[in-house]
Amino acid sequence: MSGRLVHIGSAVVDFVYRIDALPAPGTEKTASSFAQVAGGGFNMMVAASRTGMKVAFGGQLGSGPNGDFLRAALAAEGIATLTPASTMMDSGNCVAMISGDAERTFVSWPGAESVLSLGMMAPIRVAPGDWVFASGYTLSYVGSRDALADWIEALPAEIPFVFDPTPVISDIPRTILDRVLARTSWLSCNIVEAAEIAGAGDVEAIAARLLSNHSPSAEGVVIRAGAKGCFVRLADGTAQAVPGFKVAAVDTNGAGDTHIGAFVSALSRGVPPVEAARYANAAAALSVTRHGGSSAPTDQEIQTFLGHYDRLTTVHSRKQEAHF
Protein backbone atom coordinates (compact mmCIF):
# COMPACT_ATOMS: atom_id res chain seq x y z
CA MET A 1 0.00 0.00 0.00
CA SER A 2 1.36 3.46 -0.88
CA GLY A 3 0.81 6.75 0.86
CA ARG A 4 -0.72 7.59 4.21
CA LEU A 5 -3.87 8.82 5.82
CA VAL A 6 -3.15 12.33 7.10
CA HIS A 7 -5.81 13.13 9.68
CA ILE A 8 -6.38 16.87 10.21
CA GLY A 9 -8.88 16.68 13.02
CA SER A 10 -9.56 16.54 16.71
CA ALA A 11 -8.30 13.96 19.16
CA VAL A 12 -9.67 14.23 22.71
CA VAL A 13 -9.76 12.24 25.92
CA ASP A 14 -13.06 10.44 26.50
CA PHE A 15 -14.40 9.86 29.99
CA VAL A 16 -16.82 6.98 29.45
CA TYR A 17 -19.58 6.17 31.93
CA ARG A 18 -21.85 3.14 31.50
CA ILE A 19 -25.36 3.55 32.88
CA ASP A 20 -28.64 1.66 32.50
CA ALA A 21 -30.44 4.77 31.19
CA LEU A 22 -29.87 8.50 31.04
CA PRO A 23 -30.84 10.25 34.30
CA ALA A 24 -33.95 12.42 34.30
CA PRO A 25 -33.37 16.16 34.87
CA GLY A 26 -32.50 16.85 38.48
CA THR A 27 -31.73 13.20 39.29
CA GLU A 28 -28.54 11.21 39.66
CA LYS A 29 -27.30 7.87 38.34
CA THR A 30 -24.47 5.62 39.48
CA ALA A 31 -22.42 4.27 36.60
CA SER A 32 -21.70 0.55 36.37
CA SER A 33 -18.22 1.29 34.96
CA PHE A 34 -15.88 4.11 34.04
CA ALA A 35 -12.95 4.34 31.63
CA GLN A 36 -10.59 7.02 30.38
CA VAL A 37 -9.76 6.43 26.71
CA ALA A 38 -8.49 8.26 23.64
CA GLY A 39 -11.40 9.44 21.50
CA GLY A 40 -12.57 11.84 18.83
CA GLY A 41 -10.55 11.50 15.65
CA PHE A 42 -8.41 8.85 17.34
CA ASN A 43 -11.11 6.25 16.63
CA MET A 44 -11.07 6.85 12.88
CA MET A 45 -7.27 6.79 12.77
CA VAL A 46 -7.17 3.49 14.66
CA ALA A 47 -9.65 1.92 12.21
CA ALA A 48 -7.50 2.92 9.24
CA SER A 49 -4.28 1.83 10.93
CA ARG A 50 -5.56 -1.57 12.05
CA THR A 51 -6.77 -2.31 8.54
CA GLY A 52 -3.34 -1.72 7.05
CA MET A 53 -3.02 1.98 6.28
CA LYS A 54 -0.14 4.11 7.50
CA VAL A 55 -1.60 6.99 9.52
CA ALA A 56 -0.29 10.38 10.68
CA PHE A 57 -2.07 12.92 12.90
CA GLY A 58 -1.88 16.54 11.77
CA GLY A 59 -4.17 18.15 14.33
CA GLN A 60 -2.98 19.78 17.53
CA LEU A 61 -2.46 18.13 20.91
CA GLY A 62 -2.16 19.89 24.23
CA SER A 63 0.76 20.22 26.62
CA GLY A 64 -0.94 18.88 29.75
CA PRO A 65 -1.97 15.45 31.04
CA ASN A 66 -4.67 14.99 28.37
CA GLY A 67 -2.18 15.72 25.59
CA ASP A 68 0.34 13.33 27.13
CA PHE A 69 -2.33 10.64 27.36
CA LEU A 70 -3.24 11.09 23.68
CA ARG A 71 0.38 11.09 22.50
CA ALA A 72 0.95 7.80 24.28
CA ALA A 73 -2.23 6.30 22.77
CA LEU A 74 -1.25 7.38 19.24
CA ALA A 75 2.27 6.01 19.68
CA ALA A 76 0.89 2.68 20.92
CA GLU A 77 -1.04 2.36 17.63
CA GLY A 78 1.96 3.34 15.52
CA ILE A 79 0.41 6.68 14.51
CA ALA A 80 2.86 9.54 13.97
CA THR A 81 2.21 13.06 15.28
CA LEU A 82 3.17 15.73 12.75
CA THR A 83 2.72 18.99 14.69
CA PRO A 84 4.21 20.36 17.93
CA ALA A 85 2.13 20.46 21.10
CA SER A 86 0.29 23.62 22.02
CA THR A 87 2.19 25.70 24.56
CA MET A 88 -1.00 27.45 25.64
CA MET A 89 -3.46 24.72 26.66
CA ASP A 90 -4.16 21.04 27.16
CA SER A 91 -6.19 18.78 24.86
CA GLY A 92 -9.95 18.74 25.35
CA ASN A 93 -12.18 16.03 26.73
CA CYS A 94 -15.57 14.46 26.20
CA VAL A 95 -17.91 12.86 28.72
CA ALA A 96 -19.64 9.90 27.04
CA MET A 97 -22.58 8.20 28.70
CA ILE A 98 -23.35 4.77 27.26
CA SER A 99 -26.85 3.53 28.11
CA GLY A 100 -28.12 -0.04 28.36
CA ASP A 101 -29.43 0.01 24.77
CA ALA A 102 -25.86 0.71 23.51
CA GLU A 103 -26.70 4.31 22.56
CA ARG A 104 -24.51 7.19 23.72
CA THR A 105 -24.78 10.82 24.82
CA PHE A 106 -21.85 13.24 24.75
CA VAL A 107 -20.77 16.46 26.46
CA SER A 108 -17.52 17.94 25.15
CA TRP A 109 -15.01 20.53 26.36
CA PRO A 110 -12.71 21.83 23.56
CA GLY A 111 -9.00 22.29 24.15
CA ALA A 112 -5.88 22.61 22.02
CA GLU A 113 -7.53 20.68 19.17
CA SER A 114 -9.93 23.61 18.69
CA VAL A 115 -7.19 26.12 17.80
CA LEU A 116 -5.44 25.67 14.45
CA SER A 117 -3.40 28.10 12.40
CA LEU A 118 -1.64 27.80 9.08
CA GLY A 119 1.63 28.30 10.93
CA MET A 120 0.89 25.41 13.27
CA MET A 121 0.07 23.20 10.26
CA ALA A 122 3.21 24.21 8.35
CA PRO A 123 5.08 20.98 9.27
CA ILE A 124 2.39 18.89 7.56
CA ARG A 125 3.55 17.77 4.12
CA VAL A 126 1.36 15.66 1.87
CA ALA A 127 2.76 13.63 -1.01
CA PRO A 128 1.31 11.75 -3.98
CA GLY A 129 -0.49 8.66 -2.71
CA ASP A 130 -1.55 10.31 0.56
CA TRP A 131 -5.16 10.70 1.63
CA VAL A 132 -6.36 13.58 3.82
CA PHE A 133 -9.28 13.48 6.24
CA ALA A 134 -11.06 16.18 8.26
CA SER A 135 -14.28 16.24 10.24
CA GLY A 136 -16.95 18.77 11.06
CA TYR A 137 -15.81 18.98 14.66
CA THR A 138 -12.65 20.88 13.74
CA LEU A 139 -14.60 23.10 11.33
CA SER A 140 -17.12 23.93 14.07
CA TYR A 141 -14.47 25.60 16.25
CA VAL A 142 -14.14 29.36 15.85
CA GLY A 143 -10.40 29.11 16.43
CA SER A 144 -9.69 26.57 13.70
CA ARG A 145 -12.31 26.70 10.94
CA ASP A 146 -10.83 29.45 8.76
CA ALA A 147 -7.28 28.13 8.78
CA LEU A 148 -8.42 24.56 8.14
CA ALA A 149 -10.68 25.58 5.24
CA ASP A 150 -7.78 27.55 3.71
CA TRP A 151 -5.44 24.57 4.15
CA ILE A 152 -7.94 22.13 2.58
CA GLU A 153 -8.52 24.39 -0.43
CA ALA A 154 -4.75 24.59 -0.97
CA LEU A 155 -4.32 20.81 -1.16
CA PRO A 156 -2.86 19.57 -4.46
CA ALA A 157 -5.61 18.46 -6.81
CA GLU A 158 -4.34 14.86 -6.94
CA ILE A 159 -4.67 14.37 -3.14
CA PRO A 160 -7.98 12.69 -2.23
CA PHE A 161 -9.79 14.56 0.56
CA VAL A 162 -12.36 12.73 2.70
CA PHE A 163 -14.86 14.70 4.78
CA ASP A 164 -17.26 13.70 7.56
CA PRO A 165 -19.54 16.60 8.60
CA THR A 166 -20.44 14.89 11.95
CA PRO A 167 -23.46 15.69 14.16
CA VAL A 168 -22.20 19.26 14.77
CA ILE A 169 -22.79 20.20 11.14
CA SER A 170 -25.27 22.92 12.13
CA ASP A 171 -22.46 24.68 14.03
CA ILE A 172 -20.36 25.06 10.87
CA PRO A 173 -20.92 28.36 9.03
CA ARG A 174 -22.43 27.61 5.64
CA THR A 175 -19.72 29.54 3.80
CA ILE A 176 -17.04 27.35 5.42
CA LEU A 177 -19.03 24.17 4.81
CA ASP A 178 -19.56 25.01 1.14
CA ARG A 179 -15.84 25.61 0.61
CA VAL A 180 -14.89 22.28 2.15
CA LEU A 181 -17.60 20.34 0.31
CA ALA A 182 -16.42 21.81 -2.98
CA ARG A 183 -12.96 20.28 -2.40
CA THR A 184 -14.27 16.95 -1.09
CA SER A 185 -13.32 13.76 -2.96
CA TRP A 186 -15.36 11.42 -0.74
CA LEU A 187 -18.15 12.47 1.61
CA SER A 188 -19.28 10.15 4.41
CA CYS A 189 -22.24 11.13 6.59
CA ASN A 190 -25.49 9.86 8.05
CA ILE A 191 -28.89 10.66 6.61
CA VAL A 192 -29.57 13.52 9.05
CA GLU A 193 -26.30 15.22 8.15
CA ALA A 194 -26.88 14.58 4.45
CA ALA A 195 -30.32 16.21 4.63
CA GLU A 196 -28.85 19.17 6.54
CA ILE A 197 -26.63 19.81 3.52
CA ALA A 198 -28.86 18.89 0.58
CA GLY A 199 -32.43 19.11 1.89
CA ALA A 200 -35.03 16.49 2.69
CA GLY A 201 -36.01 13.55 0.51
CA ASP A 202 -35.31 9.88 0.03
CA VAL A 203 -31.73 8.72 0.30
CA GLU A 204 -31.23 8.36 -3.47
CA ALA A 205 -32.40 11.92 -4.16
CA ILE A 206 -30.34 13.36 -1.32
CA ALA A 207 -27.20 11.52 -2.45
CA ALA A 208 -27.69 12.76 -6.02
CA ARG A 209 -28.06 16.37 -4.84
CA LEU A 210 -25.02 16.09 -2.59
CA LEU A 211 -22.89 15.27 -5.61
CA SER A 212 -24.48 17.53 -8.21
CA ASN A 213 -25.05 20.64 -6.06
CA HIS A 214 -22.50 20.53 -3.26
CA SER A 215 -19.53 18.29 -4.10
CA PRO A 216 -19.43 18.32 -7.90
CA SER A 217 -15.79 17.20 -8.05
CA ALA A 218 -16.28 14.28 -5.63
CA GLU A 219 -15.87 10.66 -6.66
CA GLY A 220 -18.74 9.59 -4.48
CA VAL A 221 -20.79 9.87 -1.31
CA VAL A 222 -21.50 7.31 1.41
CA ILE A 223 -24.61 7.79 3.54
CA ARG A 224 -24.32 5.62 6.63
CA ALA A 225 -27.40 4.03 8.23
CA GLY A 226 -26.02 2.26 11.29
CA ALA A 227 -26.99 -1.41 11.51
CA LYS A 228 -28.82 -1.15 8.17
CA GLY A 229 -25.55 -0.53 6.34
CA CYS A 230 -25.00 2.38 3.97
CA PHE A 231 -25.93 3.85 0.59
CA VAL A 232 -23.24 4.57 -1.98
CA ARG A 233 -23.59 6.89 -4.93
CA LEU A 234 -20.76 7.52 -7.37
CA ALA A 235 -20.11 10.45 -9.66
CA ASP A 236 -20.95 8.32 -12.71
CA GLY A 237 -24.50 7.83 -11.40
CA THR A 238 -23.98 4.32 -10.03
CA ALA A 239 -25.96 3.92 -6.81
CA GLN A 240 -26.37 0.97 -4.48
CA ALA A 241 -27.61 0.20 -0.99
CA VAL A 242 -25.03 -1.93 0.82
CA PRO A 243 -26.69 -3.98 3.60
CA GLY A 244 -25.25 -4.11 7.09
CA PHE A 245 -24.67 -7.17 9.26
CA LYS A 246 -26.86 -8.26 12.15
CA VAL A 247 -24.84 -8.47 15.38
CA ALA A 248 -25.50 -8.14 19.11
CA ALA A 249 -24.41 -4.55 19.79
CA VAL A 250 -23.03 -3.62 23.21
CA ASP A 251 -21.55 -0.18 22.39
CA THR A 252 -22.16 1.91 19.28
CA ASN A 253 -19.63 4.58 20.28
CA GLY A 254 -17.10 4.99 17.47
CA ALA A 255 -18.99 2.89 14.91
CA GLY A 256 -19.19 5.73 12.40
CA ASP A 257 -15.50 6.49 12.84
CA THR A 258 -14.65 2.83 12.32
CA HIS A 259 -16.76 2.78 9.15
CA ILE A 260 -14.99 5.77 7.66
CA GLY A 261 -11.50 4.58 8.59
CA ALA A 262 -12.05 1.10 7.17
CA PHE A 263 -13.67 2.53 4.01
CA VAL A 264 -10.76 4.88 3.29
CA SER A 265 -8.24 2.15 4.03
CA ALA A 266 -9.95 -0.19 1.56
CA LEU A 267 -10.19 2.51 -1.12
CA SER A 268 -6.51 3.38 -0.72
CA ARG A 269 -5.49 -0.14 -1.67
CA GLY A 270 -7.68 -0.17 -4.77
CA VAL A 271 -10.83 -1.89 -3.50
CA PRO A 272 -13.89 -0.82 -5.57
CA PRO A 273 -16.17 1.62 -3.68
CA VAL A 274 -19.17 -0.69 -3.17
CA GLU A 275 -16.92 -3.51 -2.00
CA ALA A 276 -15.09 -1.05 0.25
CA ALA A 277 -18.44 -0.01 1.73
CA ARG A 278 -19.30 -3.65 2.52
CA TYR A 279 -15.87 -4.02 4.14
CA ALA A 280 -16.60 -0.89 6.20
CA ASN A 281 -20.03 -2.22 7.19
CA ALA A 282 -18.34 -5.36 8.51
CA ALA A 283 -15.75 -3.32 10.40
CA ALA A 284 -18.46 -1.22 12.04
CA ALA A 285 -20.51 -4.31 12.88
CA LEU A 286 -17.55 -5.89 14.64
CA SER A 287 -16.76 -2.66 16.49
CA VAL A 288 -20.21 -2.43 18.13
CA THR A 289 -19.83 -5.92 19.62
CA ARG A 290 -16.95 -4.55 21.73
CA HIS A 291 -16.76 -1.90 24.43
CA GLY A 292 -14.91 1.32 23.71
CA GLY A 293 -14.83 3.85 20.89
CA SER A 294 -11.47 2.65 19.56
CA SER A 295 -12.72 -0.93 19.17
CA ALA A 296 -12.00 -1.16 15.45
CA PRO A 297 -11.09 -4.64 14.20
CA THR A 298 -8.03 -5.63 12.19
CA ASP A 299 -8.12 -6.48 8.50
CA GLN A 300 -7.77 -10.18 9.35
CA GLU A 301 -10.74 -10.02 11.72
CA ILE A 302 -12.86 -8.34 9.05
CA GLN A 303 -11.87 -10.87 6.40
CA THR A 304 -12.66 -13.74 8.77
CA PHE A 305 -16.03 -12.19 9.61
CA LEU A 306 -16.93 -11.71 5.94
CA GLY A 307 -15.80 -15.22 5.03
CA HIS A 308 -17.90 -16.73 7.82
CA TYR A 309 -20.92 -14.63 6.82
CA ASP A 310 -20.57 -15.58 3.15
CA ARG A 311 -20.30 -19.29 3.99
CA LEU A 312 -23.44 -19.12 6.13
CA THR A 313 -25.28 -17.25 3.37
CA THR A 314 -24.25 -19.86 0.80
CA VAL A 315 -25.39 -22.74 3.02
CA HIS A 316 -28.71 -21.02 3.70
CA SER A 317 -29.29 -20.38 -0.03
CA ARG A 318 -28.57 -24.02 -0.89
CA LYS A 319 -31.02 -25.17 1.76
CA GLN A 320 -33.68 -22.90 0.32
CA GLU A 321 -33.02 -24.21 -3.20
CA ALA A 322 -33.17 -27.82 -1.98
CA HIS A 323 -36.45 -27.14 -0.19
CA PHE A 324 -37.89 -25.55 -3.32
Automatic annotation (TrEMBL):
Q: Which keywords are on file for this protein?
A: Kinase, Transferase
Query: One matching Pfam family, short form?
Result: PfkB
Spell out the InterPro entries in the cross-references.
Carboh/pur_kinase_PfkB_CS, PfkB_dom, Ribokinase-like
Q: Name one GO cellular component term.
A: cytosol
Q: Which part of the chain is the Carbohydrate kinase PfkB domain?
A: 5-295
UniProt keyword annotation of Kinase present: yes
- Annotated coiled-coil positions are none
State the Gene Ontology terms under molecular function.
kinase activity
Matching entries from PANTHER family are given as: SUGAR KINASE, SULFOFRUCTOSE KINASE
Instruction: Report the protein name in the record.
Output: Ribokinase
* Organism whose genome encodes this protein: Mesorhizobium wenxiniae
